[in-house]
Structures are given as C-alpha cells and as structure tokens.
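New to this. Explain the following:
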Amino acid sequence: MIHKLIILIIIFMMNRTGVAQNDTEKSYTLDDCIAIALEHNLDLKSTNLLANSAKVNYQQSKADVLPSLNGSFNLGVNDGRSIDPFTNAYINQELTFSNLGLSLDMTIFNGFRLLNSAKQNRLNKKASELEIEAAQQDLILNVTLAYLQVLNARDVLELTKARLETTKQQLKIQQGFYDNESGNPADYADILGQVASDETSVLVSESSLNNAKLSLMQLMNLKENINLVTDGLLLDFNKYEVSANAVFKEAIQNLATFKAKELRIEAAKKGVSVAKSQFTPEISLFGGINTNYSSAAELFSSTGTSIVQTGDFVTVDGQDLLIMTEQTNFDSNGIDYKDQLDNNLNTVVGVQVFVPLFNGFRAKNNVALEKIKVEESIIELERTHVDIKNAIAQVYFDMEAAYKRNESLEKQVEAYEESYRINDIRFKNGVSNFLNYITSKNNLDNAKVNLSNAKYDYLLRVKVLDYYRGTNLL
C-alpha cells in the first residue's frame, strides 16, 4: 500500500512539473514576435546607435559655423628673479600672479568647407535613418520567415507523431497475432522496426522544431521558450499574379536600402566639395580681451617732505659744510586684485588670412580619394540593384516551383490515401502482406510531409516577394 502511495505521489509531481513547464511557455502571434524583435533585436539596436552618431555629427557640423569663444584663467606663485607682469621690470622676490583672458574666433570664408560639411552630414543622417528603416524591414522579413519555419517544423512534427501513433496501433494488432501464434511472425518484427523508425523521425522533427524556435528566439532576443499561435495569420495559396519584373520595379520604389544608398552617393559628392575647399584661402576674424594681476604691484602716495643730507659738502672759508636737500616722502600700498584687473585691461581685434601655397599635394590627393568614394558609392548602388534583381528572379522561380509542387503533392496525397486505405483493409483481413502495407503507409506519410514542406516553401517565397514590393508582411 505504501509503495502504491509513493508511486501516485511521484506521478502527481511529474504531472505538476509538466504543467509548470507548459505555463512558462508563452504564446506569441506573428505580430507579437515582430513587435518584440523590433524592440529587443541587438543588430537593430546597433543600427540605431550608428544613426544616433550620424545625428550628432550633423548637429556638430552645424555648430561649427558658429564663432568660437574661449576664456582662460591662471593663478600661480613665482620665487626668484623674474619679470613683474605688472611693471615688466626685473625683480627678485616671491610674487603671486594671475592672468585672465577672453578670445573670439570666427571663420568668414574657407571655400564653403563648413557649409558643405554640414550638407554632407545631413545627407548621411538621412541615409542612416533610412538604413534603420531598411534594417527594420529586413528584421520583419526574417522574423516572418523564421515564424513560418517554426510552423512548418511543428506541422511536420505532428505528422510524424500521427505516423508513429498509427504504427503503434498496427503493432497492437500484430502483437495479438504474434501472441496467439497466428499470422506471419516476420510481420510483427517488421512492424517493431517501423515503430523504431517512426520514433526516430519524431526525434528528428523535434530537433528541427527546437532549432527553428531557437532561430526565432535569437531574432527576438528572448531567452524563454515560446509557443506560437496562428490567430490572424493568413495562409493564402492563391497563385501569385505579379511578375518578377514588376516586383523589382516596386522594390526600387519602396525599399529603403535603395534610397539610403542614393543618399550616400550625394553625401560622397559633398565630400569632394569639402576636400576642394583646401585649395582656397581661409579668412577669419579674431578678437580678445586680457588683464593680469601681480602681488608685487604697489601704489605710492606722498606723505610730506623732509630735509636730508646728500652726503656731499662744500668748503667755505676753509670750513666743510654739509649739503642738505629736501626730499618728498612716499608711503607704498599694495593694489588689490579687482583694481589691478580693471587697470590692466587690454583688447585686441584683427583679421587673419591663411593662404595654402604648398602642402605636399595633400589637398589634391584628398580630392582624389573623395572622388573614389563617390565611385564606390555608385558601384555599391549598382551592385544592390543587380543582387536584388537576381534574388527576386530566383525567389520567383522557386515560388512558382513550390506552387506547382504543392498542386502535384496534393494529388499525390489523395492517391496515396486511397492506396493506404485499400492496403490497410487488405492487410487487416490477411489478404495482403506487410510489405505492401508498410510501403503504402510510408508513401502516404512521406507525401504528407512533402506537402507540408511545399506549402511553407511557397508561403516563404511569397513573403519574400511581398517584402521586396514593400507590402506589409503582417
């Protein structure tokens, strides 16, 4: 009794564990998957950061047109022989000094370098914004394709499980014959082998489903397991009526990647203009205001006069008489910090002209390099046209092949279902042998799997073509 109770407890706990695992598996629609991917995908976040950098560069290029205003301040102590910054006289004492300044620089003309740099960075910013849109379009497509791959793998798994269940039911029948020592013992052995084969197919299908889920979870940047629901997902099998050339024409008009690369070409051309500005003179205005302070600076004020000996004398009638003189007496006082800053104030203003005469052909080579970048941008746009046109042609061909294969496989499944129904009846009544039965069953099961694959192959290609046309994939 105790053993039975323990077994019941273990079974109950296992069931609870299974329920808990199912509870952690959240269900997502295609809309949910796309929304999560757009928010959490790491590659898309990196693209956003690059666009933010381009935005900051554009803001800085606009700010470069403004004047440059800088202030300076220093305070120090000097000991020994030095020049008094207040009197410019040599002194040999410890003094405290300080300097304050304010300078202004403004570029008047530099060959429109600042203006063209701002235009170039504006074009790069717009291109980066379009590249975000292109990355979002790519991500939506990849999530949609990964989502359909999961559904395909899930359907195939259900088919393999159904195949295994049918085989197990047949095994029970054959085991009854085998236990009663009736029928062909080889049929029982063959059906055991078929069960093992079907179990292997289930394991392979489970692995494929797990890999498909992992690919989708990677795009969504999720770590938890997922379960997909098909609510609102239209699996349309109508024949695709738009031609490959029409798809390509719509792609040129709608895909953000084309527009972004066109803007990159325009930005590269502005880069040539920026480089050419190195040949032209640069004119700028400058101005400044400065003042200083020295602890050695003193202010002297008169305190009266006094008679003092000069140290000389004159002789009068043989008697030496001292020479006296009147001198003015002064009292010294230090000049405070604020007064010195006011008294020592000076200003400067002027125009500077920088004329490039020779710089080791640096300007010429920079222009040549920028022109190469323009050619590279043009080639990149042309390459994109060729790649996408070829991709559309290949996808379109595969889509048509998948559609025809789907039609053919539907007929094949229908034929094999009838064949299996007949062989199943004949085998159960002992009219047919096991080889005919299992061959008919495998033909039907394989045809169903192939039909499921063809169905999703067609849907995947249709989604890719819709992506190139700029059609909403949701």
Remarks:
- The beta strands are 26-28, 68-78, 81-83, 90-92, 95-109, 226-228, 282-294, 298-316, 319-334, 346-354.
